[in-house]
Amino acid sequence: MTRKRIFTAVLLLAAVAIGIWFFRGAQASKVSPQPQAPSPVGSQPLKAASSATNTVEEDTQIPDLPNRKLTADERQDMGLLLKIYSSPISFYGKVVDQDGNPLNGVMVKAHSTRCIWFMKEMAFDETKTVNGDFELNYRQVQGVSLSFRLDGYHRAEMGFSSLTTSKGARVEGDRHVEGDRHTYDHVTVVLQRIGKLTALHKYRPLLSCAVDGKLRVWDVSKVNVERVETKCVDQNKVPPEIPCVYAHVVKSQAPVLPAMWGEEPVSPKDAIVQLVVHDGKNAGFIKVPRQGRSYREMTLAMTQAPTEGYAPALDLTPDEILGFRTSQSVYFYFRINGFYGKGEIVRLHWNTDGSITDCYLILLLQPDGSTNVETTY
After folding, report:
1. Which domains does the chain have, with CATH numbers?
2. What is the dihedral of CA 164, 168, 172, 176, to 10 degrees?
3. What are 187-208's pLDDT values in tens digits?
């Protein structure tokens, strides 16, 4: 526990103690104006000066302590503190997807962001949406937060006062205050879908390019909305009639120095290693800089594929080829047969004879045709 949390907890406990001491003093002075010996702590129940605060609602349940049951006086004291530190709050709204369609069965849960220890078991409530609509009544205890969960969508959260949200949600609403009751009307929560991508790499696309120009290409002609079947085939040359992915080496128009692994060159001199895709439908790649991020960070960061800017060839720099020796992948967005996705080159080995072996790819395709390529780790 951090010092800040410890300090906050001490202040909260001090406030509770002061509240109990104050109300006990007020009760004692009203019962008898004459001086009398102090009674033991806990011997008298708390009494409020007004009937608006000295009665606990009948449906309020004060939980017992973990190791014993509360006495009637203690339960009344706790009820009074509940009245002091909490106020009713209501939410009326709906949950929709990014296209505005209502979402049924979303779990909406209210929970206190801060609470007194004895209120812990009362610090949450939940409901589910019906045709996208929800209604939730709650007693907020020094702050309340709503969370929204539905399989296939990113979880969203909002605070009752600022309507702030977590990643993947947008919240709008109107706030009204009547007495101590806070009401939020017309709250609209927009949940973002988690992309259900298809992993094409389960077909083991190990590409290669021999010295004599023979290629092992990845046939992606059957990648479409109904099927995502792929296969690797050997070709004497690039088959222009087959949508495919392959790796090869081309001469550079400018001088290129090779990357060195010790005294051994691991990339070609005055040449470029390329990953190429063609399908006759403007297929291509867009490289995504890694910038020192881990695989997990890259997976979470690549969420929306661009619609423009794709090039049919992905050029690999000498440093990137060297990076494969230390498990440094190269990441990219791609478009194949009109479908979008994201992927990485996990490894690629360039040989000093000019051939390429063991080029292993991972491609995650979005088969619904959208550019949403968000995945969870």
Report:
1. 86-191 (2.60.130.10), 198-365 (no CATH)
2. -40
3. 888 887 766 788 887 666 789 9
